[in-house]
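Fig. S4 source data, part A: sequence.
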Amino acid sequence: MLTAMVDDWHRYFADVVVSGDSNEIDVAARAAIDARASGATEAQAKTAGRAAAKSYREGGTPPRATRTEARAQAWTGAPAQPNTRTRTAARDDWPALFAPRLFQPPQRWGWQAADLVEAVPSASLATLGPKPVWVDPPHPDASALYGRRAGAMRKVVVRSTLAVLMFLAFGVYQVTIESTVSGYGGGDAMKVYGYALPAAGLLLALWVLGALAQVRRTNADLDRFKQPYVALRKAERQRHDQALREWTDAKRRHDDAAKASRQAQARQQSGPQWYPVRPVSEPARVDVIGGDPARYGWACLLVLLGTSLLSAGHRLAVLDLTGQEVGGELVRLAAARGLDTRWAVLDGATDFDLFTGLTNDEIADSLAYVLTDRPDAAGRSGGGEQLHERVLAVEVLRTVLASLDRPVTLARLAAGLRVLRRGAETELLTPTELERLVASIGDIDQNDWTGRQLRLWAAHLDLLHDVAPGGARPLWARLDVSVLATPGGKDDRKELIDRLLLQLVRHAIADNTLRGRQLVVIGADRLGGSAVRALSEQARVAGVRLVLFLDQPQDDLEKIVGTGGAVCIMKMYNHKDANIAAEFIGKGYRFVVNQLSHSEGRTFSDGGGDSFSATTNAGTNSSKSFLKSSSGLSDSRGHTWAGNRSWSTAENLGSSTTTARVYEFITEPQAILGMDTTEFILVDSSTGGRQVVMANCYPPICLSDRVSGTMAPPRVTP
């Protein structure tokens, strides 16, 4: 915000300027801001600020701008040098720049910032882990089986080769063999040959088939040995495929989230940055509490609230009791729009007729309250003593008014009071009026207390006469914007003027002079809690919407804040005020995380074993008997092999979150103390529900190209 930049420059030059003169610091800061607005760098702005401070020390005292001009310069960033313009507007034509934007719909009291969207960081891919890669499990050691199968295959090859060679040899030498056999034994030999040849062929075939059977047995043994490994590999393959699917799904979800985030960011970059803020329905009364001492925030909020009401066809009557020109910007903007405006400051002679349309009794009652009401620190009127004073004041003023001819002025009323206390005659009264007053002296108690009261009231009426000596212009004209401001400070004259305007406003509400208008009272807490409560009730009955700007909502004022339906809470500087505002916003139950735990573990085991054993037994045995003797040789061989392998992996991941329910402020008091001067919290109770919205009433936001014309979408609260 621009106010933050101004504060930064003031802090910088407060350290740089050796003299510590606040005016010199202010001159340097303004020069630096003007240089930055003209396009200078930060170093050039610092140089310009030091040069301005030096010029000030050497004797040049620049004229101080009014509060309205200073706010206009803050809005536009216009430089102080003459004949220069910035990228927005100069100080003189800023109403023409802002008016077209501020007077166009929709109605708004401020703007709500759009939600920020953060993209999913690419670093979150690391949480997915690497892509699963397939690795075959370790193979079992089957070298012995493969050796056996290789030996069996060699036997098959050898035996098959020998069988083929023997078959070929027999085919070649068959005739020779048969002739040789026939020569040895003739027919008997050929007969034996006929039986031996098929037997030899059968034995040869069995010899080859035995080798093939051994190959088959080794293959079967090898298949049985591989079955556990094949089952393990199949299970691991399924687990790998499942992990790959899960990783692919997680990556797809991440990519979708990142894409959605990028799309949301693109929509935000091209979509609205600010949304209008206003109550859901028209509230009966609006209370604005808090605000900075310079009333910059009040001026900004009044501009947005006023332009919205004016664009909707309403008329405004503004009563500014702060003495800080809070309504000046609104008047300038309305005038630039072509509306009828009036801005009058009751600080010196004016030509207003304060008593237009009032009877003598109404004038007496109003002035009696003005002269006798002395609210205490809590805003409550006094007790019996003030009541007696008011009764006497009403009686005396009615007597004076009955003796005077029209027009009645405050100075003539003061002269009449002096006549009643046997004072000197005055040229303000006619002889006829003097005769009437003299004839009424006997009706007034002539004691010291009454004399002191008459002298005090006459002096107060003389003070009020300096503000409104009399004229023909009505106080409440039928204008689009009418601003009545009182002087600043806090003295008897200021309090008398404020109380007089309050009574005149109440009479204007009672006789329907303000019907159809929006009545804005700025600095209403100066009137006291009882007076504000009475004014609010009277406006509610008369159908006049009341907008109250209150500085500190303490004591009796705290009881009436929010009873109208809408409250705008602005920056506060007092911790008690901030606590009151936080209490008004309310408390709520929330579940907050108070404990987190995370555990992660991974296990892996791998093992295997092979065993081989071979036994060979050789021996001879012999036996003898009377009939025969025999001997033999036995040979036994054994081969056993066992292979086992186990492989397992496990991964566990766990986390736990513990939440607890707490009952605390929706908005902490420290957050209210740290708000910017143009920020406010709208608490809308105008409907059956209740909404709390953080908004900003900085008028230059209207110049942004990314201001939405519709209300913000509802925010999802987790």
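Fig. S4 source data, part B ends here. The radius of gyration is 53 Å.
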